[in-house]
Design goal:
Layout: H1 8-18, E1 21-22, E2 26-30, E3 35-43, E4 46-54, E5 62-65, E6 69-77, E7 86-96, E8 100-108, E9 135-138, E10 144-156, E11 169-180, E12 186-189, H2 190-193, E13 194-198, E14 203-204, E15 206-207, E16 221-224, E17 229-239, E18 244-249, E19 259-262
């Protein structure tokens, strides 16, 4: 009887060839009011692409044939009415000659607590800052970010007929300057960090249209290395007749320290 000897090295090589590749997870942000997010990946020598999410996103999970090139799927998020942020774990399992799993983590911001004021109160423990005054905020790792509101474009002008405010509203663009004053990297989304408060004490969340006066960072996202700086605008739709009185900036969806400018 002949005996077949398989070396440990050969067995490890075979098992390695069968192992599936796990792509590192990317983190994306979604506003509390909800919206759509297009997720893309590049596949090679594939046969089947399986999309899934936890918790489930309506209409997102599906299995399609795929082979080579770019594949995509659109996740539509409902509004998050809680004050707590909500995490979604999204995966794309690709089967074929090389099995691969792509992963994304989507963090949906929670609703910011309503801002209230008392007309009889004439004093405050927090200084009143105007445009151009630099203030400092921190992220969850205590990295310091210097922020100043450079100017307000009111009204701002949409770049074309498809970028126009709703009836009875106008665009207001807030231009801000950012400077990383720490030894760590700071990454965030300005569209989740900035809000304005009108003359009726109503807070307004950012709009995602484009205007001629300035650009919205990289769709709101910014990444600053130590000592790095960046400038950009955050756009809002404000009702006609309502004046913008306050601009607020806070990293971490408003749950960390807040810088405020009074106009």
């Amino acid at each position: 009887m002949r005996k077949t000897i398989v070396s440990v090295a050969s067995l490890a090589l075979c098992l390695g060839a069968l192992a599936a590749t796990q792509a590192s997870a990317a983190t994306k942000a979604m506003r509390s009011s909800g919206g759509s997010l297009v997720l893309t990946a590049t596949v090679k020598n594939a046969q089947k692409c399986i999309w899934s999410s936890t918790p489930k996103i309506a209409g997102f999970a599906k299995t399609v044939k795929c082979r080579n090139g770019l594949v995509s799927n659109t996740a539509k998020f409902k509004a998050n009415t809680s004050t707590r942020s909500k995490n979604y774990e999204i995966s794309l399992k690709v089967s074929g000659k090389n099995s691969t799993t792509f992963r994304w983590t989507v963090i949906q911001a929670g609703v910011k607590p309503p801002t209230t004021t008392t007309s009889t109160t004439t004093t405050t423990t927090k200084p009143l800052y105007g445009l151009g005054v630099t203030q400092r905020v921190h992220d969850a790792s205590q990295n310091a970010l210097a922020v100043d509101v450079a100017q307000i474009f009111d009204p701002a002008t949409g770049i074309d007929q498809f970028n126009q405010p709703n009836a009875g509203y106008r665009f207001v663009a807030v231009e801000i300057n950012l400077s990383n004053q720490s030894t760590g990297t700071i990454s965030d989304d300005a569209n989740l960090d900035v809000q304005v408060i009108g003359s009726t004490n109503q807070a307004y969340s950012p709009d995602f249209s484009s205007v001629t006066e300035c650009t919205d960072f990289s769709s709101g996202s910014f990444t600053l290395l130590p000592g790095g700086t960046e400038s950009g605008c955050v756009l809002f739709q404000v009702p006609l007749g309502i004046q913008v009185k306050v601009v607020q900036f806070s990293l971490g969806y408003g749950f960390l320290d807040v810088a405020q400018w009074n106009l």
